[in-house]
Amino acid sequence: MNAAQMPARTRLVPILVGGLIALAMSALTGILLYYVDAKAELEASSRAYAVLAEVRDQIDRRLETALAVPETLAAVIAAEERIDDKAFNAIAARLIRANPSIRNVALAPGGVISAIHPVRGNEAALGLRYADVPAQNAAVLRAIRTRRTVIAGPLELVQGGTGLLSRTPVFLRDSEGEDTRYWGIVALAVDTDQLFEDIRQIADRTGFSIGVRRAPRAGSPGMPVAGSPEVFSGPPVTMLYSLPGGDRWELGAMPQGGWQSVEGIPGILRALLYLLPLVLGWIAYRVVASRYRNQELARRDPLTGLANRKSFDYQLRGLLQGKPRSCALVLIDLDGFKPVNDTHGHSAGDTALREVAERLRNLIRGTDVVYRLGGDEFAILLQDVKSDQHMVNLAKRAIARIKQPIALDGGRETTVGASAGVAVFPLGGHPERASDVFDRADRALYRSKAQGGNRAVAEPAVGSTPGLP
């Protein structure tokens, strides 16, 4: 029996079961991977915060070391009320050697730069009046007002390039140690490339892209300060860093391949996990299909693909136990079949049986069923028989079709005849067993054979003549 001869349920149920299992497992796999990836991304975010904390600590250490220079000089000036050029250059040189990120140190008594170290490369800054440079003067005024060091930047330097600028106000003290008079500013320029060298090292070591920019303000996105500015074009993990004096930076970090590169499960394993539902779905399909096929084969005749005697007995009992309605059983036995086997061989006999089965299958309605009971005996169960004439006509058409020539291999032909016995049930509204119905149809078939065959005989109770030539 091939797939086309199987009922639609037998073919579609395994496909449906296999497909549902594959879809369900695919959904579970997707949910699993989603939560694993979400967990991995959360862990990556936590690592990004740890990386930013390390960056913050490194900047703190760099700035604290750098700010020790102007604060030391400010303390000397406040104590001595002055500082000569020799002492200034000696102190500045020693402090700068200890911190290579410092570009220069300058003294600005009264807000005018009068001394700078080193002089070389910074000549343009000598004589600068902060009041004449609004971008720098704002930080100077804030330092004087708060009496604290103020860091701003990065800013364009008058001597060229950019740098962080610190402004430490100096106030002279009276005999009691109180600040009484403003002296000026100790200025410091810090090379941002040197200051943020640690950021590049941390980024290389941790696998995170790190960027620093001025904290955005209303209408202003924030100027890049160091690191990778493209970090802020994505959704980075961020941390605010407050500079002395009120200015703020925003630190940002994200995986170097972007968040989409963060996967809790490697790509090959992910592919295998997505393949697993397909494999399970295929296995389920094969198991269910095999089960249905075995069940179907148990109810089917392997030669013709028709329902077999077991299926016939089950269906006949079901019709008798169900709601009473007019049904009929037609038993068909082939006439002259043995000579086909004797003359042309059993292969030709099998061909004839398959052809007869196909002709009977094409004859019936969708509600009727053809069975092969064994050997050369067939049966048809008819439901909702409208009239005796309908049953008679079907029996006549069955016999007429069976008698048509049957093509064999090698261009040969053969013919067989058929006899039919018909029984209608339920009979007179009385309960009847399946064996009783079969016996009535079998007796009718016997009479048909006794009358020479190639005809249909119905039970006299049907109301028709015993012989239907």
UniProtKB/TrEMBL annotation:
<dbReference type="InterPro" id="IPR042240">
    <property type="entry name" value="CHASE_sf"/>
</dbReference>
<keyword id="KW-1133">Transmembrane helix</keyword>
<dbReference type="Pfam" id="PF03924">
    <property type="entry name" value="CHASE"/>
</dbReference>
<feature type="domain" description="GGDEF">
    <location>
        <begin position="325"/>
        <end position="461"/>
    </location>
</feature>
<keyword id="KW-0472">Membrane</keyword>
<feature type="domain" description="CHASE">
    <location>
        <begin position="112"/>
        <end position="204"/>
    </location>
</feature>
<protein>
    <submittedName>
        <fullName>Diguanylate cyclase</fullName>
    </submittedName>
</protein>
<dbReference type="InterPro" id="IPR043128">
    <property type="entry name" value="Rev_trsase/Diguanyl_cyclase"/>
</dbReference>
<keyword id="KW-0812">Transmembrane</keyword>
<dbReference type="InterPro" id="IPR052163">
    <property type="entry name" value="DGC-Regulatory_Protein"/>
</dbReference>
<dbReference type="InterPro" id="IPR029787">
    <property type="entry name" value="Nucleotide_cyclase"/>
</dbReference>
<dbReference type="InterPro" id="IPR006189">
    <property type="entry name" value="CHASE_dom"/>
</dbReference>
<dbReference type="InterPro" id="IPR000160">
    <property type="entry name" value="GGDEF_dom"/>
</dbReference>
<feature type="transmembrane region" description="Helical">
    <location>
        <begin position="12"/>
        <end position="36"/>
    </location>
</feature>
<dbReference type="Pfam" id="PF00990">
    <property type="entry name" value="GGDEF"/>
</dbReference>
<feature type="region of interest" description="Disordered">
    <location>
        <begin position="449"/>
        <end position="469"/>
    </location>
</feature>
